[in-house]
Amino acid sequence: GCPDWREWQRRAAELTRRLRVRPAEPAPDLVGAVLARRPRQHRWPRPLLGCVAVCQLLLGLVQVTALAHLGHDGSMGAHLFNESTAWNVALGVGLLLSALRPRAAAGLLPVLSAFLVVLTGFCVVDVLNEAVPAARLLSHGVLVVGLVLLVVVRRDHRDAPGPGAAEWSGQRASADGVD
To answer: Is the Cβ–Cβ distance between 91 and 112 less than 8 Å?
Structure first.
């Protein structure tokens, strides 16, 4: 009820209001500088990776087609052939997905790398034992090319903004009144 305290409270509220509601200070426009720093992206790895994916899928489909001609006798060989077919199709799908959505490349890299390391070991043993024709070994080159392209696609897109980043920054800019 003291008049001096009421005046102090009024001035404090007024000061608080002035400090909270004040004009924004101008800031430099850094949009051009930020966009200029974006890493250069190659245009060719994604389409080539898509081609490798199609080749890998075709390899898997050839194996699936061969299954129809071989018949099933319940042997372990048929099961192993099915596993190999599944891997070829799955890797082809993964490579195709990585060509279409480059962020997927990060997930496929360790899988394909590990697969090729293990496959190389088996290939070396098979070559030493003369257990596999050279044409079959050469077909694995498609995956080696795929791995190289996968690394390039991943490097080109690892710093790209995530989904929705452009929309969010646009909403924020318009909300702040900045064009």
So the answer is: yes
Cβ pair 64, 85 in contact under 8 A: yes
How many Cα atoms are found within 13 Å in the side-chain-facing hemisphere of 143?
Answer: 28
Number of H helices, E strands in the chain: 8, 0
Torsion angle, CA of 86/92/94/99, rounded to 10 degrees?
-170
Q: Is the pLDDT of residue 93 over 90?
A: yes
Quick: pLDDT tens for 121-158: 888 888 888 888 888 888 899 999 999 999 999 999 88
CB within 8 Å of 152: residues ≥ 6 apart: 42, 45
Question: In the predicted model, what is the mean pLDDT of the chain?
Answer: 80
Q: Are 154 and 105 in contact (CB under 8 A)?
A: yes
| Residue matched to tokens 């390039």 | 152
Cα distances (Å, whole numbers) of residue 135 to 127, 138, 140, 141: 12, 5, 9, 10
Q: What is the pTM of this model?
A: 0.55
Q: Is residue 119 within 8 Å of residue 88, measured between CB atoms? A: no
